[in-house]
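Support request, please re-run this one:
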Amino acid sequence: MKDPTMDSSPTSISDDVEIRSSARSGLRDSVLGTRNLMTVAALAVVGSLIAIPLTYITPLVATSPRGIIIMCAIMGVWMIPYLLPGVIVNKPGAFVIAGLILGVISTFTTSLGAGAIVGNLIGAAFVGIPVALFLYRFWTWWVYMISAAVFGGMNGWMYWSAYGIDGSTSDMAISMVLSLLSCFAGVGVCLLLKRALAKAGVGITK
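Re-run finished. Output below.
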């Protein structure tokens, strides 16, 4: 007689069993994930080594139309600290966090005080808004070129009024062209840095 306790049929698993996943998995894939956040923070700190000296240099140079033109010609250098974190870490919020960190550092290292946070967040918005308008679906060179156009165009235009310099139409036109070209070159530098860092295993591409 077959022993009912020795049933060899497979044990069924109830359909009601709930498989739970870690609540941190979504966070890990966002900009707030440990690796992503540390990468953005590190790039922002490195970027501050560019932004802080420029903060002091710009008022000293931008005292004449020629000075404004010179500063517009290196506008791409200004842009790199804001753009690079998002180029390396392709996650929504990367630009904002980098701008915030740059602002906090600038608060204690420049004469701008807390206003540095607002200024740096505006700089981050100039490069981040074009990417956001595409719903963060495209992290590619042509979107970064749009960011460069916004950053270079807005800052190139604001320099004249911000420093109270009167320039001729030709001076303003030259400054705008140089500002845009400089920022386009800045995109190229960021992409080259991305390639170099990717070989070292740094950065998130998706």
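The mean pLDDT is 87. Residues 169-199 form the longest helix (31 residues).
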